[in-house]
Structures are given as C-alpha cells and as structure tokens.
Amino acid sequence: MTFTIKLEEENTHSHLILAHGAGSGITSPFFQVMMELLAARGIAVTGFEFAYMASRRADGSKRPPPRAEALVPEYRNVVDELTKHRKNDAKIVIGGKSLGGRVASLIADELYREHLISGLVCLGYPFHPPKAPEKLRTAHLETLTCPALIVQGERDPFGNKDEVDAFSLPKAIETAWIGDGDHDFGPRGRSGFTRMGNLAAAADAVAAFIARLPELR
Question: What span, in angstroms and rounded, lies between the C-alpha atoms of 84 and 159?
C-alpha cells in the first residue's frame, strides 16, 4: 500500500513523481520541504511510499528495505497509474531521494523509450555506501539515455564532488552541486551556506531542469 501526497497548481504542465529514501518516508522534514518548494515553483509533485515503508508506518517496525531492483515493479505501477490521467502536453518526470532516486534510475530508460516520462531527478544519489567507495552503484548510469539531473551535496558520504567528478557518466546526466551539503544537503555551520538556502537551490535546479525538458508527444 502506498501513501500519496499531491501538491498541485491548476495550470501546471509538469508533474514530478518522487519516492523516499531507505530510512525515512515522505513525511520526513527533508521530503516535506522539498515538495513544498517544488510546488511553489509550479511543479505538481506526487510523493509515494514503497510497501515496506508503509508497513513500518503501520506496525512501527524497522525492517530493512528490499534491494533496489525488487522495488522497481512498485515504482512502475505508480507511474502507470498516474500517467493514465495526465494531460496530453504534461511533462512527467520521475525520481526520488537517495534509494527512491536509485530505483527510479533503474526504470528511467524503459519509461523514456515508451514516451511515458520526459526525465529523471535524483536528490542525493547513493553512488556507493558510506565508507565503501569501491561498491559502486553506477553501472546502469553509464549507459543512461533518459535526460537526468542528479542534485548532490558536495560532501555527500554516498558520493562527494571529487568522487563523482571522476566517474564516466554520460552526457544525458547533469549534476547540480549543493554547497557544502551532506546527504540531506545540510551544510556545516561556518560554511557560509544554510540548510534552507541549500534546499531552495536544489528546488531551483530541479525546476530549471524540468523547464528545459521537451513535452511528451
């Protein structure tokens, strides 16, 4: 069962579907603020929870998430349901926070080839587990053709700027760097950046990326 929040303006022509990270659902402060900031920029946002997170909410357990690949069918079902009701000229973009973005990235090319989506947005992509940079999760990204934006904190332990700049990512992938940001885009106290400023910068980057995408035909 999924739990969905939708913030939408009547005349918007862009719809972003976002899934949550591994440990926090769509009611987390990060997720709620990002949804509000994106909606304020004229983007309809639908956040949804995978079944394992909905079960956590129901029974209070802390069961670990399934493998990302096992969550792909759930994501596909959400996209199929929402695209049934889209306007003909609406841009549909998929993505998510951390694990949610990784799952979306696994299905992005398939949906793009089917003309169901215009692009992909990953907020804090988990390029590797913290302190395990050798365990990369980038093989499928190297052949990605779907237009994609990865918004990443400069000191994200799942992939910092120095590490990611050294990867061979395709031209389809853009990267927006968040100043001194961690995995939730939070900066250090004396960095000159603020958490809210960084979240706003992330929302601006996403809105600009979606604005550049062509409409679905």
Answer: 36
* C-alpha 149 chain-centroid distance: 9
Closest Cα to residue 111, out of 77, 143, 85? 77
Amino acid making up residue 64: P
Q: Does any domain span residue 58? A: yes
Instruction: Encode pLDDT of 133-181 as tens digits.
Output: 999 999 999 999 999 999 999 999 999 999 999 999 999 999 999 999 9
- Integer angstrom CA distances of residue 118 from 21, 26, 97, 115: 22, 23, 18, 7
Contact criterion met (CB below 8 Å) for 13 and 207: no
- Quote the domain boundaries for residue 198: 5-212
Answer whether residue 217 is part of any domain.
Answer: no
Q: Which two tokens stand for residue 84?
A: 């049934």
Residue 27 φ/ψ, nearest 5 degrees: -95, 5
Domain count, the chain: 1
The candidate with the shortest Cα–Cα distance to 178, out of 148, 158, 203, 208, is: 203
